[in-house]
Amino acid sequence: MSYTVDGPGLRAHLSQINAAIGLVQLRHIDEVASARRILWTQYEQGLKDLPGVDLVDVGVSASVPSMLAIHIAYREHVFTTLRDQGIGVGTHYPPNHLQPAFAPWHRPLPLTERIGRRDLTLPFHPLMSDRDAQVVVDALAGALR
Fold first, then answer.
1. Low pLDDT (below 70) residues in the chain
2. Stated pTM of the model
3. What is the CATH number of the domain that holds 128?
4. Is there a contact between 144 and 99 (Cβ–Cβ < 8 Å)?
5. How many domains, the chain?
6. Coil, helix or strand at residue 59
7. Which uninterrupted H or E stretch holds 122?
8. DSSP 88
């Protein structure tokens, strides 16, 4: 029996130390999943009344969110303002077609580019408290004023 490879791929192996760490972490997966869902819901409640903030819905009741993304106008201003306050926001999804590695295949993708300019991720870790999330929401509200 054989198979066909239609494109490039990777041969990747998990090191023994990373596998050992992963096995220990698996013992806590239900606790971590619950904490992530609760945190996501707390953010959802805090962000719902902020004008111009669109939470990217991940179907939290049927998934375990790994991050919390919003779409927001004036992202660069908000990003800088929150970072200046020590809040670890990020931009995790720059449009791939604008990256130098993909230049030979570039073509305009206006919707992707518009969303890419508005995407911002907020701090999201299962050890964050209600208060931590509220600090982020309050700082975001302040940056929007």
1. 1-5
2. 0.83
3. 3.90.1150.10
4. no
5. 1
6. coil
7. strand 119-122
8. -
